[in-house]
Amino acid sequence: xxxxxxxxxxxxxxxxxxxxxxxxxxxxxxxxxxxxxxxxxxxxxxxxxxxxxxxxxxxxxxxxxxxxxxxxxxxxxxxxxxxxxxxxxxxxxxxxxxxxxxxxxxxxxxxxxxxxxxxxxxxxxxxxxxxxxxxxxxxxxxxxxxxxxxxxxxxxxxxxxxxxxxxxxxxxxxxxxxxxxxxxxxxxxxxxxxxxxxxxxxxxxxxxxxxxxxxxxxxxxxxxxxxxxxxxxxxxxxxxxxxxxxxxxxxxxxxxxxxxxxxxxxxxxxxxxxxxxxxxxxxxxxxxxxxxxxxxxxxxxxxxxxxxxxxxxxxxxxxxxxxxxxxxxxxxxxxxxxxxxxxxxxxxxxxxxxxxxxxxxxxxxxxxxxxxxxxxxxxxxxxxxxxxxxxxxxxxxxxxxxxxxxxxxxxxxxxxxxxxxxxxxxxxxxxxxxxxxxxxxxxxxxxxxxxxxxxxxxxxxxxxxxxxxxxxxxxxxxxxxxxxxxxxxxxxxxxxxxxx
Amino acid sequence: xxxxxxxxxxxxxxxxxxxxxxxxxxxxxxxxxxxxxxxxxxxxxxxxxxxxxxxxxxxxxxxxxxxxxxxxxxxxxxxxxxxxxxxxxxxxxxxxxxxxxxxxxxxxxxxxxxxxxxxxxxxxxxxxxxxxxxxxxxxxxxxxxxxxxxxxxxxxxxxxxxxxxxxxxxxxxxxxxxxxxxxxxxxxxxxxxxxxxxxxxxxxxxxxxxxxxxxxxxxxxxxxxxxxxxxxxxxxxxxxxxxxxxxxxxxxxxxxxxxxxxxxxxxxxxxxxxxxxxxxxxxxxxxxxxxxxxxxxxxxxxxxxxxxxxxxxxxxxxxxxxxxxxxxxxxxxxxxxxxxxxxxxxxxxxxxxxxxxxxxxxxxxxxxxxxxxxxxxxxxxxxxxxxxxxxxxxxxxxxxxxxxxxxxxxxxxxxxxxxxxxxxxxxxxxxxxxxxxxxxxxxxxxxxxxxxxxxxxxxxxxxxxxxxxxxxxxxxxxxxxxxxxxxxxxxxxxxxxxxxxxxxxxxxxxxxxxxxxxxxxxxxxxxxxxxxxxxxxxxxxxxxxxxxxxxxxxxxxxxxxxxxxxxxxxxxxxxxxxxxxxxxxxxxxxxxxxxxxxxxxxxxxxxxxxxxxxxxxxxxxxxxxxxxxxxxxxxxxxxxxxxxxxxxxxxxxxxx
Lengths: 500, 656
Hints:
The complex is a heterodimer.
Chain A: H1 2-21, H2 27-47, E1 67-74, E2 79-85, H3 90-109, H4 117-136, H5 140-149, H6 151-161, H7 166-195, H8 200-206, H9 213-230, H10 239-246, H11 249-259, H12 261-273, H13 275-301, H14 306-326, H15 330-361, H16 372-375, H17 377-390, H18 398-411, H19 414-442, H20 449-453, H21 461-479, H22 482-495
Antiparallel strand pairs in A: 1-2
Chain B: H1 2-23, H2 29-53, E1 56-64, E2 69-76, H3 78-101, H4 108-127, H5 131-149, H6 158-187, H7 192-200, H8 206-223, H9 232-235, H10 241-250, H11 252-262, H12 264-268, H13 271-292, H14 298-318, H15 322-350, H16 366-380, H17 386-403, H18 432-461, H19 476-498, H20 501-506, H21 532-555, H22 568-573, H23 578-627, H24 631-655
Antiparallel strand pairs in B: 1-2
Helix pairs in contact in B: 1-2, 1-4, 2-3, 2-4, 3-4, 3-10, 3-15, 3-19, 4-5, 5-6, 6-8, 8-11, 8-13, 10-14, 10-15, 11-14, 11-15, 13-14, 13-18, 14-15, 14-17, 14-18, 15-16, 15-17, 15-19, 16-18, 16-19, 17-18, 17-19, 18-21
């Protein structure tokens, strides 16, 4: 079955090459090719679940992939091409292939106004390869390589297809995250040098044995900073609002939906590699996570631009995920993992909707929008649904991650974590406040001038195809959170064996 | 097994109807109406069957968070079954009524689906066996309330009222969730049975228990519109009148009280929490009633009356009587739903919510007039109407707690005590001062209730007609629900009072259990021992209040009796300016904080980032400029470099 693993990486890569190489006059055909590649990758990624998922908790390594491929890559440098999926990475892999497919289908229906749709899709597929590689890599150096693969195509997507201020936003994105990458590289080499291997399976099995505590703290600091830039964690977040606001719709969807998860996923993986370091820095991580929740939601409350608001809401939501990780408890990790997926689904949907609104009314200014439900009841209904899901309504996907990261923080007891838990809960109330404010300004009331004046069609089939799966998933994950948590349970329990 | 399925169908059937209704095209009114009326009608039937067939229990594990599992299940005892009947009945009445009431509304389809979704959520709360499951229903109700308050596009104040309703309750829910988490952490499970068993086994520390109970009360105060989180309810009247009847009177606002009733054994172990509940209830009762005296909008009178009446339910709980609380919940559900639907019929005919535009219509609309009269009689508590018996049992419980000092009124558990709730912690006191507070506030409220209900009755139906309208009874689909709801408003109390007491005691399954308290301490008794003296006092106060309103009205039948309030009138009409206080203490600071945070984030943090970029560019230009020098400069630099290298070579050579 390891064929599937390689295929999931290779198909989008081949699709990207094919779509990119096809001449411009075959633009539509190239977009079809890219979409088919994304569809095949989606299917193969689902095939991965068919593997051997039995679990023997005793005596097994901490990471036990369902499938793995372990090839020698650069033996002289002791580098291995070691990839695999397990319960922690598979939901993210599936989310990545799903969102890429939806973005491809959306672009197939609607080519960007400036043209070049086939190149956009080729770049999206390259980004997909990079993200999938990050989630699959079982070798830290390989992890770093894939982490870097994502960067430049995303830069190009923002800089070429973005909004009016796209150059600046793209430059800021790439420079900021490159800074994170440098730290990541140093962190990876610190670990590899101290442990004598970069293989994640071996490293997690050792659980930090043989790495001095000081080195662990240094390594985790470097790695956590790198991931904090990506996630993003307050106060390293300011590249994100600019990048999201300027990126084209599909860019925002991929950026918020899965790109940010590379950071939180990385944190969970390295927590098992240098647990002593994670333990030492967990309180700091917790404080910053709660700061992200509160500051992110307060900024949203005073925000006046639609896409910027959704971008800042990501800061708050990822704060909940990071809070879950910072507790270093099984419940916290479970909350973080479902929070990751839920945020990908819901925020992906929100960015699709924001794109649909901006395409039609040519403004994202909340003061100029208004009365959307008078003009487009379906669009405003779905926007309301997505906003309600995003504010963490129980019964929809967003609830579980947020509620149980608060549970995990309160569960640690002691004044410090209690205060963090309570503050996070207050942040959840502020989240409700800004989403309802958003709905009130955009959907309620009489239709505003911009909404009345715009010539716009009803919601198209192409859009419904892109949104539908996310709408359904947000409900399905809310009612059956086990869809993610059954898969993550055993790996998280195993990880807990090495985390103090 | 059958009963379990029956119980599970209560939330599931309306949920399915709601999901189907939400994806229906807007124009299919008939299908939407069938789905709405059919699903709620089914739940009414199922609830009745469930009440007759005895308790239901069953659950499965939904998901594991490793340290704790989340279960989903049903746990229906007699109280839950009765509340389920009330929910099913009111929801059905409202769905039928809405078909006509919203006949010219092109968004009727989503509306009916949202009512079904709300019904599903309420049933989830009623049957839930797990606190997290309960929370799901709890919050979904909140969002349905939000959606339905904002339904009417013609009202400019509706969107703000909707946001306020959700946010105020959400603020309370921060406390609710933390309280649930504290219980879950202390017990290692969110199952209600496990939590109650742990509490009665003394496994939860006193501090944790009190903290959890108080935090839960925050959520309850939000949902049940108790002081100080009651401010959203009067504004919520911007929703369509049937919604006011269903959500903002009969069911959702009672959910908080119901949940406290379910968890009462926890509260009985925490005198501090009981005292807090008593204070809040005492303030709420009187505040709501006083605010109701000076409103001109008929729906706002009823809304404030709801605040006040739910205060009675909370008061009953504060003196330890879940039975009296539930009894009042049931009778209030009937007569308040009736009052709102009748008010809707009046508004429908008059074309205005304002009582200053009504009057003189009692002959022309007999169904409306007589059903509303029955509802008002139940509200003020005239015998033999339902409200008399239930209010009497609340005040009786308070009187017992006050007069007999610090002990629980007498009942020590809820129905089916064998294994359902476990033994109740012994010696659970409501402080006697708290019981007195509740009793006194309750008695004064009786007087004020008599006053405002009479004013509403006289202003709405009597005197000269003050507006341009032709009063008439509504169409059949709106009249039938009025007549149907009038029945329990009139007879519910009698039925309960005359129910054969011996029946329940012998029934181990936890069926209806109306035995007198003294005989069966482990059973629900809806009627505490009647105290004739108390009854006389209560009736005298009622008559006094009603007579006061009548005298004030008699002097000038065109004027508002509220002018008799004198200078207090504005204060009452503005509900003691608590909205302004809330605005000043919470809303404005939050907005200012948000703006300041945004500025700081953009100027300081992002400023630092942009500054680093700009600084690096400037530095680069400086260095580049330093390199752009003339030929002599280059020659000097090269020479200098050569010398440096030479020196370095010599030095390292010497050292090596």
